[in-house]
Specification:
The protein is of the alpha/beta class. The chain has 10 helices and 8 strands. The chain is globular.
Length: 288
Protein backbone atom coordinates (compact mmCIF):
# COMPACT_ATOMS: atom_id res chain seq x y z
CA UNK A 1 0.00 0.00 0.00
CA UNK A 2 1.38 3.40 -1.03
CA UNK A 3 2.18 5.69 1.90
CA UNK A 4 2.20 9.48 1.86
CA UNK A 5 3.78 12.27 3.89
CA UNK A 6 3.52 16.04 4.38
CA UNK A 7 6.77 17.89 5.07
CA UNK A 8 5.53 21.51 5.05
CA UNK A 9 2.93 22.35 7.71
CA UNK A 10 2.24 25.40 9.91
CA UNK A 11 0.65 25.64 13.35
CA UNK A 12 -0.52 28.51 15.50
CA UNK A 13 3.08 28.88 16.67
CA UNK A 14 3.40 30.97 13.51
CA UNK A 15 0.56 31.79 11.11
CA UNK A 16 -1.50 28.62 11.11
CA UNK A 17 -4.73 28.14 13.05
CA UNK A 18 -4.24 24.68 14.59
CA UNK A 19 -2.10 23.84 17.60
CA UNK A 20 1.00 21.67 17.11
CA UNK A 21 -0.79 18.82 18.88
CA UNK A 22 -3.78 19.14 16.57
CA UNK A 23 -1.45 18.93 13.56
CA UNK A 24 -0.36 15.45 14.66
CA UNK A 25 -3.96 14.31 15.18
CA UNK A 26 -5.00 15.55 11.73
CA UNK A 27 -1.99 13.86 10.11
CA UNK A 28 -2.79 10.58 11.85
CA UNK A 29 -6.46 10.81 10.83
CA UNK A 30 -5.25 11.34 7.25
CA UNK A 31 -3.18 8.13 7.45
CA UNK A 32 0.08 9.92 6.76
CA UNK A 33 3.34 8.08 7.41
CA UNK A 34 5.15 11.29 8.43
CA UNK A 35 4.46 14.97 9.04
CA UNK A 36 6.86 17.88 9.59
CA UNK A 37 6.04 20.99 11.59
CA UNK A 38 7.71 23.91 9.78
CA UNK A 39 6.56 27.12 11.40
CA UNK A 40 7.90 30.46 10.18
CA UNK A 41 11.12 31.45 11.98
CA UNK A 42 10.01 29.52 15.07
CA UNK A 43 10.57 26.15 16.70
CA UNK A 44 8.37 27.07 19.66
CA UNK A 45 5.72 24.50 18.77
CA UNK A 46 8.10 21.57 18.41
CA UNK A 47 7.96 20.29 22.04
CA UNK A 48 4.14 20.07 21.96
CA UNK A 49 4.31 18.52 18.48
CA UNK A 50 6.74 15.78 19.58
CA UNK A 51 4.84 15.11 22.80
CA UNK A 52 1.58 14.67 20.88
CA UNK A 53 3.29 12.29 18.45
CA UNK A 54 4.10 9.90 21.32
CA UNK A 55 0.42 8.96 21.30
CA UNK A 56 0.47 8.15 17.56
CA UNK A 57 3.36 5.69 17.06
CA UNK A 58 2.32 5.02 13.48
CA UNK A 59 3.34 8.50 12.32
CA UNK A 60 6.83 9.97 12.18
CA UNK A 61 6.89 13.51 13.57
CA UNK A 62 9.72 15.56 12.04
CA UNK A 63 10.90 18.78 13.73
CA UNK A 64 11.30 21.59 11.22
CA UNK A 65 11.20 25.30 10.50
CA UNK A 66 10.63 27.62 7.52
CA UNK A 67 13.04 30.52 7.09
CA UNK A 68 12.48 33.40 4.69
CA UNK A 69 15.59 34.59 2.84
CA UNK A 70 16.33 36.90 -0.07
CA UNK A 71 18.21 36.24 -3.32
CA UNK A 72 18.28 39.06 -5.83
CA UNK A 73 14.84 40.65 -5.72
CA UNK A 74 12.94 37.47 -4.80
CA UNK A 75 12.31 35.70 -1.54
CA UNK A 76 13.56 32.13 -1.15
CA UNK A 77 11.82 30.18 1.58
CA UNK A 78 14.04 27.52 3.09
CA UNK A 79 12.55 24.67 5.10
CA UNK A 80 14.75 22.86 7.60
CA UNK A 81 13.86 19.24 8.40
CA UNK A 82 15.06 16.74 11.06
CA UNK A 83 16.31 19.57 13.29
CA UNK A 84 17.58 19.58 16.82
CA UNK A 85 15.25 22.41 17.81
CA UNK A 86 17.32 23.17 20.93
CA UNK A 87 20.54 23.89 19.02
CA UNK A 88 21.93 27.24 20.26
CA UNK A 89 23.17 28.41 16.83
CA UNK A 90 19.77 27.79 15.26
CA UNK A 91 17.94 29.40 18.18
CA UNK A 92 20.14 32.52 18.04
CA UNK A 93 19.55 32.85 14.30
CA UNK A 94 15.79 32.44 14.68
CA UNK A 95 15.74 35.01 17.48
CA UNK A 96 17.35 37.51 15.09
CA UNK A 97 14.69 36.67 12.51
CA UNK A 98 11.93 37.10 15.08
CA UNK A 99 13.21 40.53 16.12
CA UNK A 100 13.13 41.60 12.48
CA UNK A 101 9.58 40.24 12.25
CA UNK A 102 8.54 42.28 15.31
CA UNK A 103 9.87 45.44 13.68
CA UNK A 104 7.98 44.67 10.48
CA UNK A 105 4.76 43.87 12.33
CA UNK A 106 4.81 47.19 14.16
CA UNK A 107 5.38 48.96 10.84
CA UNK A 108 2.35 47.16 9.35
CA UNK A 109 0.23 48.07 12.37
CA UNK A 110 1.23 51.74 12.08
CA UNK A 111 0.42 51.76 8.36
CA UNK A 112 -3.00 50.26 9.02
CA UNK A 113 -3.63 52.89 11.67
CA UNK A 114 -2.72 55.66 9.24
CA UNK A 115 -5.06 54.15 6.63
CA UNK A 116 -8.03 54.25 8.99
CA UNK A 117 -7.86 50.68 10.34
CA UNK A 118 -6.53 51.07 13.88
CA UNK A 119 -5.53 47.87 15.69
CA UNK A 120 -3.91 47.31 19.07
CA UNK A 121 -1.71 44.37 20.05
CA UNK A 122 -4.31 43.12 22.53
CA UNK A 123 -6.84 42.47 19.73
CA UNK A 124 -7.91 38.80 20.13
CA UNK A 125 -6.84 37.87 16.59
CA UNK A 126 -3.36 39.27 17.22
CA UNK A 127 -3.03 38.14 20.83
CA UNK A 128 -3.83 34.58 19.70
CA UNK A 129 -0.34 34.41 18.19
CA UNK A 130 1.18 34.58 21.67
CA UNK A 131 3.68 37.36 20.99
CA UNK A 132 4.26 40.02 18.36
CA UNK A 133 7.11 38.07 16.73
CA UNK A 134 4.75 35.16 15.97
CA UNK A 135 2.22 37.35 14.19
CA UNK A 136 1.94 37.06 10.44
CA UNK A 137 -0.13 38.92 7.90
CA UNK A 138 -2.99 36.38 8.24
CA UNK A 139 -3.40 37.48 11.87
CA UNK A 140 -3.76 41.10 10.75
CA UNK A 141 -6.20 40.00 8.03
CA UNK A 142 -8.36 38.12 10.52
CA UNK A 143 -8.44 41.13 12.87
CA UNK A 144 -9.51 43.38 10.00
CA UNK A 145 -12.23 40.91 8.99
CA UNK A 146 -13.59 40.95 12.53
CA UNK A 147 -13.48 44.73 13.02
CA UNK A 148 -14.01 46.23 9.57
CA UNK A 149 -16.35 43.93 7.68
CA UNK A 150 -14.00 42.44 5.11
CA UNK A 151 -15.66 39.33 3.64
CA UNK A 152 -12.55 37.12 3.58
CA UNK A 153 -8.86 36.97 4.43
CA UNK A 154 -8.02 37.22 0.74
CA UNK A 155 -10.02 40.43 0.36
CA UNK A 156 -7.87 42.03 3.08
CA UNK A 157 -4.70 40.92 1.33
CA UNK A 158 -5.94 42.17 -2.02
CA UNK A 159 -6.76 45.64 -0.66
CA UNK A 160 -4.12 46.19 2.00
CA UNK A 161 -1.53 43.52 2.79
CA UNK A 162 -0.08 41.90 -0.30
CA UNK A 163 3.02 43.21 -2.07
CA UNK A 164 2.32 46.58 -3.69
CA UNK A 165 -0.65 47.37 -1.42
CA UNK A 166 -0.71 50.32 0.99
CA UNK A 167 -0.05 48.40 4.23
CA UNK A 168 2.60 46.05 2.84
CA UNK A 169 6.03 46.27 4.46
CA UNK A 170 9.12 44.58 3.02
CA UNK A 171 10.97 42.35 5.45
CA UNK A 172 14.68 42.48 6.27
CA UNK A 173 15.80 39.01 5.20
CA UNK A 174 19.12 37.14 5.32
CA UNK A 175 21.09 35.51 2.54
CA UNK A 176 20.04 31.87 1.93
CA UNK A 177 23.49 30.58 2.95
CA UNK A 178 22.92 31.85 6.50
CA UNK A 179 19.76 29.75 6.67
CA UNK A 180 21.58 26.68 5.32
CA UNK A 181 24.30 27.13 7.93
CA UNK A 182 21.82 27.48 10.81
CA UNK A 183 19.89 24.40 9.67
CA UNK A 184 23.06 22.32 9.26
CA UNK A 185 24.34 23.46 12.67
CA UNK A 186 21.16 21.92 14.10
CA UNK A 187 21.77 18.67 12.22
CA UNK A 188 19.04 19.38 9.71
CA UNK A 189 18.44 19.22 5.97
CA UNK A 190 17.78 22.39 3.94
CA UNK A 191 14.92 22.39 1.42
CA UNK A 192 13.92 25.10 -1.07
CA UNK A 193 10.18 25.47 -0.47
CA UNK A 194 7.58 26.12 -3.22
CA UNK A 195 10.40 26.93 -5.65
CA UNK A 196 8.41 27.76 -8.78
CA UNK A 197 5.14 29.38 -9.76
CA UNK A 198 3.13 29.27 -12.94
CA UNK A 199 5.04 32.14 -14.46
CA UNK A 200 7.18 32.58 -17.53
CA UNK A 201 10.82 31.46 -17.34
CA UNK A 202 10.42 29.65 -14.02
CA UNK A 203 12.67 26.84 -15.26
CA UNK A 204 15.43 29.38 -15.86
CA UNK A 205 14.89 30.80 -12.36
CA UNK A 206 14.98 27.36 -10.74
CA UNK A 207 18.15 26.44 -12.63
CA UNK A 208 19.79 29.69 -11.56
CA UNK A 209 18.98 29.11 -7.87
CA UNK A 210 20.02 25.46 -7.85
CA UNK A 211 23.25 26.09 -9.74
CA UNK A 212 24.13 28.87 -7.30
CA UNK A 213 23.17 27.22 -4.01
CA UNK A 214 23.61 23.45 -4.46
CA UNK A 215 27.37 23.85 -3.84
CA UNK A 216 26.70 26.21 -0.89
CA UNK A 217 24.48 24.04 1.29
CA UNK A 218 21.10 23.55 -0.38
CA UNK A 219 20.17 19.87 0.09
CA UNK A 220 16.76 19.50 -1.54
CA UNK A 221 13.82 21.22 -3.21
CA UNK A 222 10.08 20.69 -3.06
CA UNK A 223 8.81 18.89 -6.13
CA UNK A 224 5.37 18.23 -4.67
CA UNK A 225 3.31 21.21 -3.52
CA UNK A 226 -0.35 22.16 -3.21
CA UNK A 227 -0.30 24.57 -6.16
CA UNK A 228 1.83 22.43 -8.47
CA UNK A 229 0.40 20.62 -11.45
CA UNK A 230 2.09 17.62 -13.08
CA UNK A 231 4.26 19.95 -15.18
CA UNK A 232 5.80 21.71 -12.19
CA UNK A 233 6.42 18.42 -10.39
CA UNK A 234 8.07 16.84 -13.43
CA UNK A 235 10.24 19.92 -13.93
CA UNK A 236 11.43 19.80 -10.32
CA UNK A 237 12.15 16.07 -10.54
CA UNK A 238 14.33 16.71 -13.60
CA UNK A 239 16.13 19.71 -12.11
CA UNK A 240 16.85 18.09 -8.75
CA UNK A 241 18.44 15.18 -10.63
CA UNK A 242 20.53 17.58 -12.68
CA UNK A 243 21.85 19.38 -9.60
CA UNK A 244 22.01 16.25 -7.42
CA UNK A 245 19.49 17.47 -4.86
CA UNK A 246 16.93 15.43 -2.94
CA UNK A 247 13.19 15.89 -3.47
CA UNK A 248 10.73 16.96 -0.81
CA UNK A 249 7.12 18.04 -0.73
CA UNK A 250 4.29 19.32 1.39
CA UNK A 251 0.97 21.07 1.48
CA UNK A 252 1.93 24.40 3.16
CA UNK A 253 -1.06 23.79 5.41
CA UNK A 254 -2.22 26.75 7.55
CA UNK A 255 -5.58 25.41 8.76
CA UNK A 256 -8.43 27.93 8.66
CA UNK A 257 -6.03 30.64 7.50
CA UNK A 258 -5.74 28.88 4.11
CA UNK A 259 -9.09 27.09 3.98
CA UNK A 260 -8.62 25.58 0.52
CA UNK A 261 -5.47 23.67 1.52
CA UNK A 262 -5.83 20.40 3.45
CA UNK A 263 -3.06 18.71 5.41
CA UNK A 264 -1.68 15.85 3.35
CA UNK A 265 -3.72 16.47 0.21
CA UNK A 266 -3.27 20.19 -0.45
CA UNK A 267 -5.87 21.46 -2.90
CA UNK A 268 -7.13 17.90 -3.33
CA UNK A 269 -4.63 16.18 -5.60
CA UNK A 270 -1.39 16.42 -3.62
CA UNK A 271 0.25 13.09 -2.80
CA UNK A 272 3.82 13.25 -1.48
CA UNK A 273 5.30 9.73 -1.61
CA UNK A 274 6.89 8.43 1.58
CA UNK A 275 9.80 7.10 -0.46
CA UNK A 276 11.23 10.64 -0.47
CA UNK A 277 12.16 10.26 3.22
CA UNK A 278 15.15 7.99 2.62
CA UNK A 279 17.07 10.31 0.27
CA UNK A 280 16.24 13.29 2.50
CA UNK A 281 17.57 11.52 5.59
CA UNK A 282 20.72 10.64 3.67
CA UNK A 283 21.41 14.39 3.56
CA UNK A 284 21.47 14.75 7.35
CA UNK A 285 24.92 16.11 8.26
CA UNK A 286 27.37 13.34 9.16
CA UNK A 287 28.27 15.05 12.45
CA UNK A 288 24.65 14.79 13.66
Amino acid sequence: MMQYIDLHVHSNSSDGSDSPGEIVKIAAASNLAAVALTDHDSVGGIPEFLEAARHFPGIEAIPGVEISTMFGNRELHIVGLFLDHTNPDLCAFLEEMRKNREIRNEAIRRKLNSLGYPLTWDHPALAAAGDTASIGRPHFARALMEDYGFPSLQSVFDKLLKRGCPAYVQRTLPDPVRAFDAIHAAGGVSVWAHPVYRERNERAWARRVMKRFAPLGLDAAEGYYSLFGPGETQMMIELTRTYQLALSGGSDYHGANSPNIALGSGAGKLRVPAELLGPLKARIPKNR
